[in-house]
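Contributing new records

If you add data, match the layout below exactly. Sequence lines come first and carry their own label; structure lines follow with theirs. Keep one chain per record. Anything else will be rejected by the validation script.
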Amino acid sequence: MAANGPHQMGFMQEAIALARRGRQTAAPNPMVGCVLVRDGRIVGRGWHRSPGCAHAEVAAIADAGAAARGATAYVTLEPCNHTGRTRPCVDAIIAAGIGEVVYALPDPNPVAAGGADRLRAAGVETTSGLCKDEARELVRGWLHALQRKRPLVIAKAAMSLDGRIAAPSGESKWLTGPAARRIGHELRADCDAILVGVGTLTADDPSLTARLDDATLAPLRVVLDTNGASPIGAKAFERSGRGALILTTEQCSQSQARMFRDCGVDVAICGRSANGRVDLDDALAALADRGVLSVMVEGGGKALGAFLDEDLIDEIHLFYAPMLLGGGRAAFDGRGVARIADAGGFDFDAPRAVGPDFVVRGRRRRAR
């Protein structure tokens, strides 16, 4: 079967759409989707919901029932060949009598890899690479965490053309229009955690949820707070979804930390950096310990500047509104670089218009 025709691509795109249903719940596992196709018709659908639940292939086989025999499986990631919380997916595929497996990405995890070899040895035809770019985008946080042992850090800032995220009065709502804000909420929904500094929490009282149409998703809400000064009644500390976490230091008293925990807010005590604030490497390690694969740093300027200064930003999304403020809070308020020659390191896409605003996406160039 040709695995790159329009129908085959459509089946894989359906699998990718299914995989996205696992955002906010699949981590620390990757989002994976699968469809089973027989005689040109989808007979089974599945996605990985959360750790310990059935993997996408097993869920699709259960959905298809007897129709799985002789079907082709389109799956976003190479079926696993590993016993963890669940049995290997290759065993279920072979037992169901599936005749062919088309997968987008090979599994780079040495613990779970080798599924395609096992399937071929059992007489199941395999093809890889269909829609690989879209599938890689879907699990970029998982791939990054697997390689670098820390979450993917995505920075996001909405600002005026002169780089200000708030007017001198502190007013910041709204710099960008509804279309740009919608994209910002999509970014939130795709991340396991949203991080702000205590200054932003206190000044703006953001909810840090992803609000899309009629749905509200609640990733882990994270606050950098060296002294434990966060207001306990902040909107971000509401208990829905993945809850909230304060990243603090020993400067936060035991009684203050206990008060946060009694209110349902997790507390992680981190080391202090040279400037006395929360050590960001410790902060990311604390997030990794909690199964976070991707974190969006959303403000304010001091938090964004600190992550930039420490070279911890892996991806950046800059939203620009067509206005000049002439003063106010800077989007990145850190040490900055000493020389213009030191300001490289990101590959930026061409600016994209979003209503009256525009957005620029950049990715950090890093050695493999």
